Structure of Tryptophan--tRNA ligase:
Amino acid sequence: KFKPRVFSGIQPSGGLTLGNYLGAIKRFVDMQDSGIETLYCMVDMHAITVWQDPEALRRQTRELAAGYLAAGLDPAKSILFNQSQVSAHAELGWVFNCVARMGWMNRMTQWKDKTTGKNAEQASLGLFAYPSLMAADILVYHATHVPVGEDQKQHVELTRDIAAKFNHDYKVDFFPITEPVIEGAATRVMSLRDGSKKMSKSDPSDNSRINLTDDADKIASKIRKAKTDAEPLPESMEGLDARPEAKNLVNIYAALSGMSKEAVLGEFAGQGFGAFKPKLADLAVASLAPISVEMGRLMEDPAEIDRILGAGADRAAAIAEPVLAQTLDIVGM
Ligand code: ADP
Ligand code: NA
């Protein structure tokens, strides 16, 4: 009933990391050549759930678009656009705020993580409701597949719950039950300084992450400094179960090279990090430094980025507006 369609988004809240690249963008690029229609968004309305300096937000949105393009997304093959330029997202988001239940939102682990230690009373209402807007981002395109990192799995499950409840409450079969697509060797890239934390742009330590804007020297130096242990690499992945930092570097090597994790261990088993890290650094520099250079080049022409995003928004709206109109009709509006 639903034709296959891929949607995903990233917040322009400043700085893309290797985690965003391996968990999301690199896989967006793979999917654009699958013959399925692909839509990729800068979700700026999610970014403002935490206060953003307006000029910085404008710059970060263009920088994220430059990151998408530099990594290989092609506006002729994928629809690239800004969430706030397609108003159907916000309108469907309101309908979904009336479908989603408070209890569902309260159970979101990302909400709980972001508000522990702090006063949840001081978090924005938007931060609490953001997974409901994310459901609208996906379902306003009747998207059937959403490539995301592991950390977004629960939010895609919530999207499925919202679609099912809407279909049930209004006795329709209108929204698809979307599948999260969480695959590849690095669905959860960890901090280079602490293997128990995910690599994140919000980590205060810049050495904990590789930014897509880092140059070759910085990438190599961060990998040299990455926390590891003194043991050689084992023969099989089970041998890394109690060594999260070592396992993370093997996952990153596999994801960047396209090799299986087993093949990486086949090549490096018995060797220590003194031998493995320079090889990983070379691979990371070869894969990522050209992206950083191309992002810099694209950022010199912000008007061209705006033109691409404007054209993408027109194409996205042409899909979203009829879905919104039908939704409102179903609801009785
Ligand atoms: P962030 O988590 O960096 O704030 P977003 O929430 O906008 O950024 O996430 C954008 C995409 O990047 C999502 O698909 C998310 O799952 C993925 N992602 C973010 N961090 C990682 C990570 N450390 N490992 C794998 N995927 C990640
Ligand atoms: Na995230």
User: Anything to note?
Assistant: The chain has two domains: 5-181+301-331, 206-296.
